[in-house]
Each structure stands twice: as C-alpha cells, then as structure tokens.
Amino acid sequence: MQRFLLAIGLILGLLMIVGLCNTLNYGTPTRGSYDKVLVDLERQDIPQRLANAIKIRTISEQNIADINYESFLELHRFIDVEFPLVTKNLDKKVIGAYSLLYVWKGSDPTLKPVLLLSHMDVVPVVAGTEPLWEHGPFSGDIANGYIWGRGALDDKLGVFAILEAVEQLLLQGYEPKRSFYLAFGHDEERGGVDGAGQIAKYLKAKGIQALFVLDEGGFITNGGIFGLDKPIAMVNVSEKGYVSLELSVKGEGGHSSMPPAETAATVLSQAVVSVSENKFPLDTSVFETMMEPVAQEMPFYKKAVLANIGMLAPMISGLVEQQPQFNALVRTTTAPTMLLGSPKENVLPIYAKAIINHRILPGETVASTKEFVVKAIANEQVSVAIINQSNDPSPVSSVISKAYQAIEKTIQETVEQEILVVPGILPAATDSKYYAEISDDTYRFVFAEINMSENRFHGTNERIGVESYMAAVRFYVRLVENSDQL
Predict the structure, then answer these.
(1) Distances from the Cα of 258 to the Cα of 247, 262, 346, angstroms
(2) What is the tens place of the pLDDT at every residue in 261-271?
C-alpha cells in the first residue's frame, strides 16, 4: 500500500511540475506598441452611401423563387455611380449573374495579390417583428450615432467600407504594388454556391494564388469576454464545417388505439437522445492557440487552467457542455432542430424523421461526423443521410505569417484605445470556405465594434455606429498600404 501511495504521490508531483512548466511557458509575449495612424478621409457622405445601399432590398429569401434579383442589379448600378474612380480604374466582372469581382492591378505582377471579400445579400426580417425595430429594417436611417438596417453589420458594411477605402486611395493617386481583388458575393446567406463558389472557380481557373484572403467573421468586442475588460479584436483563422443529418425510421402506421410495442416515433426519439447524449470528444488545440495572446493579461490561476486545458479536458467535459460559447470552440456540436412524424395525433407515423445540425471542428470531417452519429445510434432501423449543402472545416491559417501580422498591425493602428488582437475559430460559415485553394492563409474579420450584451447579427435593430463605420473604412485604407509593404 505504501508503494502504491508513493507512486500516486510521485505521479501527482510530476503532474504539478508539468502543469507549472506549462503555465510559465504559456502565453504570447506582449507585442511592441504600434503608432496610431491618422487616415484622412476626403470624400463626403460616407455614412450616407452605406445607408442608401441598405435601402436596396437585396434579400436572400428562403425560397429562391421569392428572391428579387433585380435588386442586386440595382445595387450594381448604385456602386457604378457612387464610386466613379473604382468604376473607371478597376476591372469589373459580373459572375454568377449577380456577384461582383473587381481587380485593382498592381505595378509588380510578381507579387501575390490580396483578396478582400464581403457579400451584398442580407437575411429577411422575421414577419411580424417590424414594429420592434426602432428604425425600419430597410430605412437606412442615420440616427443617434448609428446607421440602421439590414446589412449594417452583415455585410454591406464590408462591401462599402472596402469600396470607400479603394475610392479614397484612388483619389489620392495611390498606385498599389501588388494587385487587389475585391469579391462581393450575392448569395452568402444561402451558402454562397452561385456567388463565392463561382468566383473561386474563376480565380482557380486563372491560376490566381493570393497572399491572403480576408472575409467577415470576426469583430471588435467592447470587452467582457475571457474575463478581460479590454476590447478584443477577434481575427478568426478557421471556421467550422457544416452538415445536417436526417435520421429517418419507417413504421407500419395504423390507428393509435392499437399501437405496436415500438413505433417509428419511439425508435426515432431514442436515436435523437442517443446522438444528443454521445458528445463529440473535446479538442482544445485551436482554443489553446486562440488564448495565448490574452494569457499574459489574466490572473495566474486562470492562466494555469488555460495552459493545461488539454490535460484537464477529461475532467471538465461536463462543465464545458454547460457553456455554449466555449463548447462550440472545443468540439463538434450537435443540435437537433427539426422533427416530423404523423400528420394527425391519432395516426401512427409511417415515416418519422429528425434533422440534426452539426458544426464540425477542424480535425473532423463531414464523413467522420456521420460515422460518429451512426455508431452513437447503433440501430439499423434508423437511416442516416446527409441533406442539403455540407462542407468540411476550413484549414487553420497561420498566426505567425506576415499576412496575420499585417492585419494585426492595421487593427492596432486604426483603433484609438489599447486592444488585444486574438486568433479564433468561427462557429458559423462564410464565403471564405470556397477560397481554400486560392490561398494558404484565410482570415475572417470585419472592423465593427460590437457590444457583447447585444445580438444584432441577423437580429432586430441591426445597426453600426457611424464612427465605427468610418474606422472600418480607415482600416481597409491602411490594410492596403500595409499589405503593399509585405
């Protein structure tokens, strides 16, 4: 017994030493300070142009037959008029009938180009919620220091901040050394197949290899996450994959007064419970990389947990499940979303179906996710099929590349206050997933200051601060200039 206790003591001691070493070595040293750079924006009515664009209802409706594609052509004409130097000096190509690709040719063709992405379509407003808006969802009102309406955040903000920045640089007579591609999809909110998907195919056919790709998907918080008060700029270096699986069971049907021992609904319900209870394993590798830049700002005990989170994973798995935001960063998630059974309460279902949506962590695939679910169900009565569009997680881009450093530098130069720049993983999906073969480094960040206590993406009262939008324009101006120096 004494030997056993001694062995346990030695193991615990070694674990403590390893944990202490991990803690002391964890965390990115604070980067050097960056000088703030004042970017003088000469054009007038910059906020008003975004506001006017919001009034154009480029809505990605649920049913494709309901989409007003003429609204996208109206937005094209609006851009042609409002950005005359862009129209005159950049090569423009319409792809997929409604998406836009601009090429700003650089003076040195040996340099890899930079690809800046955004999308022109917006989600619908939930019917009946219009009275809840302080300003109409397509009013484009500028009031109380904000620009209001669908697209103010997601993502006409990005489209027009990029265009304003390029127009400003052209106004100054700026001539880039490397080429810049501006790609604006028209169906991101429907998966991007006909927009970004076609643009990416076009660029691949042309043999284009970009230095980096920058899309939406990260933003600036006002503090309050990771237990820190400082604002944090989240530059996402990857995004999770996506698959919806349909679970289906065939039964005999009949009258509910004489049910069999098991109905299709019973078998299906047990399958849904099995999938929900069999959680995907934790993988903290991306999260650990994400937290390194903020570790130095945290108390020692929190830093110790972060530094050893991989070792602690088996013990904290249950706790992680109770924290949806954290849970989404460290495992493939499972979300039952739809159930279908009998059309009437006294009729046994012949077919029972359930839809379960999964957001796939890097390291897993669509195929491995389906395999995991089939094993969790372990019942041949339940068929499992992939429905709709699915995609594997994107590759994880470098956080030590010159491209990432240029983005970080540009953020630091643009904001007035002290800010932390943190790499992250995006639980949702963007158009950037189509460009994996165009560049090794794809990042997701749009310069928008977000209050973490609010949820305005796809929500009621979507808005962007006027000053935040002006800073977004300045960000893209500096990003072009800094990218030219790489």
Answers:
(1) 25, 11, 10
(2) 889 999 999 99
Evaluate whether 462 touches 137 at the Cβ level (below 8 Å). Answer: yes
pTM: 0.88
In degrees rounded to 5, what are phi and psi of residue 322? -85, 0
159 contacts 120 by C-beta, under 8 angstroms: yes
108 as an active site residue: the answer is no
Residue 235: which of 453, 442, 486, 457 has the closest Cα?
442
Domain 240-391 fold is: Alpha-Beta Plaits (3.30.70)
- Position 246 scores a pLDDT of 97
Q: How far apart are CA 347 and CA 342, in angstroms?
A: 6
Name 245's Cβ contacts closer than 8 Å, sequence gap at least 6: 355, 356, 358, 369, 370, 373, 384, 385, 386, 387
Q: Which tokens hold the place of 324? A: 């949806």
The active-site residue out of 121, 164, 283, 408 is: 121
Contacts of 326 (CB under 8 A, 6+ apart): 320
Average pLDDT of 3-26? Answer: 53
Which of 164, 187, 188, 216 does the annotation list as catalytic?
188
Residue 193, token pair as written in the block = 């197949």
Could you give the angle at the alpha carbon of 78 between the alpha carbons of 73 and 84, nearest 5°?
125
With residue 72 as reference, give the H or E element that holds it. Answer: helix 70-82
List, for residues 312-345, the tens digit of each pLDDT value.
656 556 666 667 777 888 899 999 999 998 888 9
pLDDT band at 297 (very low <50, low <70, confident <90, very high): low
Task: Give CA–CA dist 221/443, Å, rounded.
Answer: 17
Answer yes or no: CATH 3.40.630.10 is held by domain 46-237+394-483: yes
As a whole number of Å, the CA-based R_g of the chain is: 25
Asked about 413 being catalytic, the answer comes back as no
In the structure, what pLDDT confidence band is assigned to residue 73 with cuts at 50, 70 and 90?
very high
